[in-house]
Design goal:
mainly alpha, Arc Repressor Mutant, subunit A, 2 strands, globular
Length: 104
């Protein structure tokens, strides 16, 4: 049986060196860091808008509860690290992951 290729996820050093200690240590929100990493992956390192992602999919992808995901999304939006938008009130959100430290 042939082994499948493993996709690599490149992280900006800022994410690990600064954002992780800030969200996990200072804000006491490790769930926000995990959701940020999940969305980072889904948006090609913040370079594109995600497709619609149900909260249940994020919860399953991170191993967290749906409620923890909702709280993490609120914290990340409040910190302006992500933007979540809905096409309709009942649709799954799309996300934009912001990289305020990256020069454009």
């Amino acid at each position: 049986m042939a082994m499948s290729a493993i996709a690599r996820l490149g992280l900006d050093p800022y994410v690990v060196d600064t954002l992780m200690p800030d969200l996990v240590g200072h804000d006491r929100r490790p769930s926000a860091f995990l959701v940020y990493l999940y969305l980072w992956r889904q948006t090609n390192a913040g370079r594109s808008r995600s497709d619609e992602i149900p909260l249940r999919a994020i919860a399953e992808g991170t191993g967290m509860s749906k409620r923890a995901v909702q709280n993490a999304i609120r914290a990340l939006a409040r910190r302006r690290l992500i933007t979540a938008s809905h096409a309709t009130p009942t649709s799954a959100p799309t996300f934009v992951v912001h990289r305020p430290w990256a020069r454009r």
